[in-house]
Write a structure and sequence with these properties.
The structure is a single chain. With about 290 residues, this protein is an all-beta fold. The protein has no helices and 26 strands.
Length: about 290
């Protein structure tokens, strides 16, 4: 099944709903009316090999809601040239993929929730201001990839519960914020921020968790807390072209056999490390 809806004139408060149950379903929806407001479409799929695609352009206060229950499901959604818009993705099952794009936008939000096995959530926000991403993954072998570039005041929130989860965050711009929470075992976080006045907050609880953080340019902050055993934390803070500085790292590790390595270059950088437990190690380079 393929559904297509488009309009070239202004419209408000329109709602489209699609439901599919079976094998290899395809749903495509597009709302492309300039200066439209409060439009919404909902896509719900159950079964195997489903694909849902949703596009909104030039919208204000509009929403895309997509729900998939099954195996090998794929969600693709994008919002362009708008403000105060929302994308909501819910995937239940195994090997689900969600690809989300918001570009040239203001005050937009993405909420993605995945439960099960082998889920992937890929979120991109480009050339945008005051946007927010919130990803929640429950289960095993989940992965969240978030990219916010050429952005101002964007925020990313990631929560992963279970085992073997991976989070990758890439933020480029000014006054950006990331908060990442991981619970379970063998979790990994990789976060890169470039620009000015960035902040990353990390909380990992469990066993054999790993965090790698990189910040480039000026006035950046890192706050990381790891509780459990065999946790590893790597931090690099540097100024552009070897200049810059005024970075701050505050690290707390509670448990056994935790390891921390911090590299700071530039001027006026500060590192505060607190470790409780046995067999912990710290390597600090300024």
């Amino acid at each position: 099944m393929v559904s297509f809806a488009a309009s070239e004139s202004s419209s408000e408060e329109n709602t489209a709903y699609q439901y599919q149950d079976g094998l290899a379903n395809l749903a495509i929806s597009e709302q492309a009316a300039p200066d439209s407001r409060k439009n919404m479409f909902e896509q719900e799929q159950q079964g195997v090999g489903n694909i849902a695609e949703g596009t909104q352009k030039g919208e204000t206060s509009s929403r895309i809601s997509q729900v998939q229950d099954g195996t090998y499901n794929t969600i693709r959604s994008q919002q362009q040239f708008g403000s105060a818009n929302t994308i909501q993705n819910l995937q239940v099952g195994a090997e689900n993929t969600a690809n989300t794009l918001q570009s040239v936008s203001y005050d937009n939000a993405v909420t993605a929730r995945q439960s099960g096995f082998g889920n992937l959530s890929d979120v991109k926000q480009l050339n945008s201001n005051y946007n927010k991403v919130q990803v929640t993954q429950v289960g095993i072998f989940n992965q969240a990839d978030i990219s916010q570039s050429t952005s101002f005041y964007d925020r990313a929130f990631v929560e992963q519960r279970g085992n073997d989860n991976e989070t990758n965050v890439d933020q480029r711009g000014f006054v950006l914020f990331s908060a990442i929470t991981q619970q379970g075992a063998f979790n990994m976080v990789s976060a890169r921020q470039s620009g000015t006045q960035q902040e990353v907050d990390i909380l990992q609880t469990g066993f054999a968790n790993q965090t790698n953080l990189m910040q480039v340019d000026n006035n950046n902050n890192i706050s990381a807390t790891q509780s459990g055993s065999f946790n590893q934390l790597g931090v690099m803070q540097s100024g552009a072209f070897g200049l810059g500085g005024s970075h701050q790292s505050v690290i707390s590790q509670v448990g056994n056999f935790n390891a921390t390595a911090i590299l700071q270059t530039g001027t006026s950088s500060t590192a505060v490390v607190t470790q409780f437990g046995n067999g912990n190690s710290v390597s600090l380079t300024h």
